[in-house]
Design a protein that fits this description.
4 copies of one chain form a homotetramer.
Chain A: H1 14-33, H2 40-46, H3 54-57, H4 61-85, H5 93-111, H6 113-121, H7 127-153, H8 163-176, H9 188-201
Helix pairs in contact in A: 1-2, 1-4, 1-6, 4-5, 4-6, 4-7, 5-6, 5-7, 5-9, 7-8
Chain B binds a DNA duplex (21 and 21 nucleotides) through residues 13-15, 18, 39-41, 49-56, 60-61.
DNA sequence: AATGAATGAGCGTTCATTCAT
DNA sequence: TATGAATGAACGCTCATTCAT
């Protein structure tokens, strides 16, 4: 997850600002209503411009979608990487996983409409858009596999575990939280801890 | 969750058949494309009738949605209950949970477009329709809480576990499988077993 | 205006009854909403049958319209003729006119939905239906011309009066009352008297 | 009834022109066929735009109706007021009434599709639209009452006359002319004169 | 850089009508 | 005699998109 956008364009043009407003508005609306229930006019209205102006920045509604989907993964990927990298080299595999889960959850539930939009709508979006998002998703999945492999190599995960399945199991729980999470009740850090506890120790009495 | 439809109407009218075809077509399409990307004409075409005829059976597209959502929970609820009830009285809490997970997964992934449609689209559907589906969803959630409580009471689940959170964690993983499951790779029974193993024993080495 | 229906069919078949119910329902609805805003299903529902059954009695919606329009004039024509014929031979032209106005008003405002429907909707109905109603309307107009001519011949109407224009003026006022008449405020007899007073004596001080 | 639109917007936008074309087309079609028999596509076609474009200017078909109905009364009101105001202060009540009738008739029969549409369709239009038109209709009726009262105060109308009834009688005749008037046969001025003669002197021999 | 105006395609829905039963 | 089921055409309306300004 390299190449922060800011390197390319140190001082954002006005156009960059508007472009961002369109994307922000779209992410929020896609997340709330889904892609096809969201109209260009809703997007434009939230971005405080007129519908026609959107086409100065994007060729089509599905180009906006592609960008939103891409940013959604990019943002969560960067956050997770950053959280793991911030750990001391001596950190255990489990500590790393906990940091990753916490960062993923925080991004998904508190920070980024792009990520939550991606997680929520991916399955209902036109297949062509899904396909365009698949490469980056795969890279992100590989990163998690790496995290799990690291722990397994160090004996923190039992030798019989099917890591792909574990990843699916863990990220399933985690992503599904977008459907029920209420920020007034629990913090994302608390949740991350609990999820990792269950994952590692199980609930058996 | 009893009441098999067949008892009420032993010989279905022609109209019942068409009504069912409409619902089946809708469930499949909603599941694939989401609610608002699905058109009445697509539904009609899959049901092999003309678009106008749909209105002989339903007042509106969202009435179809309501019915699809309702059936989606009803069907999985009935399947899970039936699977658990089929167990001997002596079955452990964990066995019951495993049977429940297997039945839920099978219904969701192999059997019912209604259930998978519900799980997939609920979050992107108009709030009014969500609300109309909430009562039965709550009942279903209560049933799972009961299953977990049973295991906890018998000491199969540790005394500190927050059962609501466990349910969310477990059903999250399970429901999320709708996004990645490939019937050619693993059976739902295998998956159920694995999920329960992770849940109870954890992956710790 | 001869041929009372009962002569042709002394004992009405059941079908005659239903046919009548359809016509009654149509007249009422056409009068209230106009022709094209009235649906076959509304008609059927008021007649307590199903929409398809209407076609056992009529070939099309506009055939119903034709019949309603025809009956509308027939009924008021018969009522007016009867009222005039009931007068003694010695009755003056003005008395005859007053009786005619009273009968027309009563039929239009209190008695027949067919007549009020005709008066209200004629101008907005397809030209073909208008044309089919024109013959009987002309006959009715001639009858009024006769009434006026009778009065003029006897010197009750000034020799310079253009009778066609007088008829238009009088029947205009009278027919327009369908737009404002409130049965709780004035009787049709009172109105007829007033109208004739204005027509004959004017309002000049 | 003053307020010439032109003062507000000296140079009409292109949009104003199209808006007007839509209203003109609607008034003409409503007048000819009634409200509900008139389709958006007919309106658009007469306005030389596409059906969808109508919605750039109006929210709904019934908003067009409301505007047409309002303009219909506004226009005839303004014309009548202007005609009466053009008379010398010394003009008699009868002269004023004659001018008013002439202006009303001319607007209704020769000048404004809005006014003739209003007069013809009001009774068959949805009640909600009727109600929205009622305020301005009432104001117009009051104006006529004022005209009649003026004549009565000066002794030109007999002291026993019920002015509301007289107004209904007169305007009934006048409005009804929309159903039979043929511009090739008589001028509206001629008709106005005749109507007032009958009204004031009656036809008595 | 942004918009007002317009469009074409298609949407959910209605409705007169048909017809086997 | 009447209806349940279905249809085809059209309706009011929405929407992504275009483009001159």
């Amino acid at each position: 997850m390299p190449a922060p956008r800011a390197v390319k364009r140190p001082r954002p043009h006005k156009s960059d600002v508007t472009r961002h407003k369109i994307l922000d508005a779209s992410a929020k609306l896609f997340r709330e209503q889904g892609f096809s229930a969201t109209t260009l006019r809703q997007i434009a209205s939230r971005a405080k411009i007129k519908a026609g102006s959107v086409y100065y920045y994007f060729d089509s509604k599905s180009q906006i979608l592609d960008e939103v989907l891409k940013i959604g993964i990019k943002v969560v990927f960067e956050a997770v990487e950053k959280a793991v990298d911030a750990l001391p080299e001596t950190a255990t595999g489990r500590t790393r996983l906990e940091a990753a889960v916490a960062a993923h959850l925080h991004t998904l539930l508190r920070y980024s409409d792009y990520t939550s939009a991606n997680i929520r709508i991916f399955g209902q979006v036109p297949r062509t858009s899904q396909n365009r998002n698949r490469a980056i998703r795969r890279t992100y999945a590989e990163y998690w596999n790496g995290l799990l492999q690291y722990a397994k190599d160090r004996g923190e995960i039992g030798p019989d575990a099917d890591l792909s399945l574990v990843r699916l199991f863990l990220l399933g729980s985690v992503n599904w939280s977008v459907e029920w999470y209420d920020p007034k009740k629990k913090s994302t850090e608390f949740l991350a801890k609990k999820f990792c506890n269950i994952l590692f120790e199980g609930i058996g009495g």
